[in-house]
Each structure stands twice: as structure tokens, then as C-alpha cells.
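To: structure subgroup
Subject: Chain for Friday's discussion

All,

I'm putting the inputs and outputs inline so they're searchable in the archive.
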Amino acid sequence: MLEQLGSLQINEEASSSEYEQMDTEMSIAQQATAAAAVSENSQAGLPRSMVPDPGWFDGDQSKFEDWWREIRLFLKSNRVNRTDNRITAILACLRGGVAGIYT
């Protein structure tokens, strides 16, 4: 019985470590994806935007309206026009938790 408990604890620690590694890898991939969506415009020879990156949205509903306004302005000023690139850039800015319905 003690061996099983020890095994469970080791598995839990490994899972936690794996989760942290996956979270780090996902953050790196999200940043690269957002940069790629915006870089389509730099490849087209368009000038860089003067609008700052809106940053991450962490799920705080009280900050959503401001963040949403900033992300829309950011996408427009960077001429991210293709729907798939807009979706990718927005998803890349979301952090933490599980998406749910906002009321």
C-alpha cells in the first residue's frame, strides 16, 4: 500500500512538471504565432504599427472591454485582415484557465 502511495506521489510530481513544461512551450508557441500573424504585413512592405501590443488577457472580466478594444486596434493598425490570422493572433494573447461563457 505504501509503495502505491509513493508511486502516486511520484506520478503527480511528474505530471506537474510535464504540465509546467507544456505551459512554457505553449507560451512560446503563442508568442511565435502572434508574431507570425503580424509579420504578414511586414513581409508586404507595410510600415510597422505605432500601436503597442495589447498584451495577455488572463480572464479577468473587469479588464476585458479595455483589452478587447486594444486588440482590435492592434489588429487593425497592423493590417491583420485575414480571418484565420486574426483568430490566431487573438488566441495567442489568451492566458490561463479554460475558456468559458462571459455573462
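Points worth raising on Friday:
Helices lie at 2-43, 61-77, 83-92.
Residues 2-92 form one domain.

D.
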